[in-house]
């Protein structure tokens, strides 16, 4: 299948090493309009930039391609590199970057683990194996110290139920557990096993119901708890 015309232009620009000579407006327009399937076609067609990881079923960037893009598109390297990568690789590299930056960047790990589908998070863990020769979980466990470790490892290890069924009684029970933990421990509630279990295993819909019940129990917004 041929690449869409605008992606052919982008491929030619990258291959030619045009770098800062690329039309900036056209580049941003192309990145903004492209669809998920277009990006997949780009990776499949650009064999000099990507290699197929057949074991884990995704296309990963050659390291030289990442270096090339960062050099040639210095002002746009983040947008271009993230656009070009398979979503699994993108998320794996984001987690690795967060670990290198340290505690102030751990919110990025939370974002990746909580906003991706169960399959995409699993895919990111597979990509992590391929890229860094270790699991995401063990890397987090070796870099993160203190109460955050248990929660972050649990979050990236999750494979949450994504159906539309919620047991409201269970959500209410979890809300009570969380409210009691917050009341007795404050910010240290995240260290409690039951709190970690709830936050790392419950479905997103379940947590939405929990949020509602918590606010009713406490008379205050869970997001405002300190």
Automatic annotation (TrEMBL):
The keyword Repeat applies. InterPro entries: Annexin_repeat, Annexin_sf. GO terms for biological process: response to cold; response to heat; response to salt stress; response to water deprivation. Keywords: Annexin, Calcium, Calcium/phospholipid-binding, Metal-binding, Repeat. Gene3D superfamilies: Annexin (1.10.220.10). It comes from the Eukaryota. PROSITE patterns: ANNEXIN_2 (PS51897). One of its GO terms (molecular function) is calcium ion binding. Belongs to the annexin (TC 1.A.31.1) family. This is AT2G38750 protein. It comes from Arabidopsis thaliana (Mouse-ear cress).
């Amino acid at each position: 299948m041929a690449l869409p015309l605008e992606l052919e232009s982008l491929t030619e620009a990258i291959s030619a090493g045009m770098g800062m000579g690329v039309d900036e407006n056209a580049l941003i327009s192309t990145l903004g309009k492209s669809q998920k399937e277009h990006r997949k076609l780009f990776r499949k067609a650009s064999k000099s930039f990507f290699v197929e990881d057949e074991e884990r079923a995704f296309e990963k960037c050659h390291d030289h391609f990442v270096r090339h893009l960062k050099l040639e598109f210095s002002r746009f390297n983040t947008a271009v590199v993230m656009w070009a990568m398979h979503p699994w690789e993108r998320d794996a590299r984001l987690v690795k970057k967060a670990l290198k930056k340290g505690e102030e960047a751990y919110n990025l790990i939370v974002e990746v683990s909580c906003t991706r589908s169960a399959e995409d998070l699993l895919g990111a863990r597979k990509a992590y194996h391929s890229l860094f020769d270790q699991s995401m979980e063990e890397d987090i466990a070796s870099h993160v110290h203190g109460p955050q470790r248990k929660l972050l490892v649990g979050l990236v290890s999750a494979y949450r139920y994504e159906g539309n069924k919620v047991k409201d009684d269970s959500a209410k029970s979890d809300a009570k557990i969380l409210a009691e933990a917050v009341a007795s421990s404050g910010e240290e509630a995240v260290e409690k096993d039951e709190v970690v279990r709830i936050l790392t295993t419950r479905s997103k819909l379940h947590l939405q119901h929990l949020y509602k019940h918590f606010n009713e129990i406490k008379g205050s917004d869970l997001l405002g708890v300190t």
